[in-house]
Amino acid sequence: MPYPAKLTPEAILQAASVLLRAGGAETVGMRALASALGVQPSSLYRHFADRAAVLGALEDQTSLDLNVALTRAAAALPPAEALRATAHAYLEFARADPHAYSLLLVPRAPYTAQPGPAQDLWKSVLALVGAVSGQADDTAATVAFWAYMHGFATLELSGQFGRSGPKGGFERGLDALIVGLSQPA
After folding, report:
1. What angle do CA 86, 87, 93 make, to 5 degrees?
2. Is residue 166 within 8 Å of 137, Cβ to Cβ?
3. What domain range is 13 assigned to?
């Protein structure tokens, strides 16, 4: 049986992205994808081994999109201003696309660096933080920055700040972090 010409990995990911943004990762399944594309579920397996592979590809795309947003925000700015702009772009990304952002927070086995969008995102943030700290490969400072951004975005998206919001806590924490990163370790 020939596969429909319209069925490509890109078309599958586009449909998966629509499902993801509409209802979260739990709505991205092989049957739902097949239905959205007007094909039989079995035809998807030619391009993706299973649902996990589709979600992995969506996570890669999210890492790539976030990296683009952070890189644009930091462009042509001095190091501390670039890191501040990056922090704001990160938070805006999480707010604008919370379901895609949530793919970056899925529990998984301990991470081993693999070439690809997630590692590229890490390297971009490492370079931005290193420009502020004065250490090109400042993993400890980058982990601190990353944890702050993930933590703040997660707390905000989950409603943990309540109706009153964070009351300037984002800027205060960011100021402290940037000043702290600027000091010799």
Report:
1. 85
2. no
3. 1-48
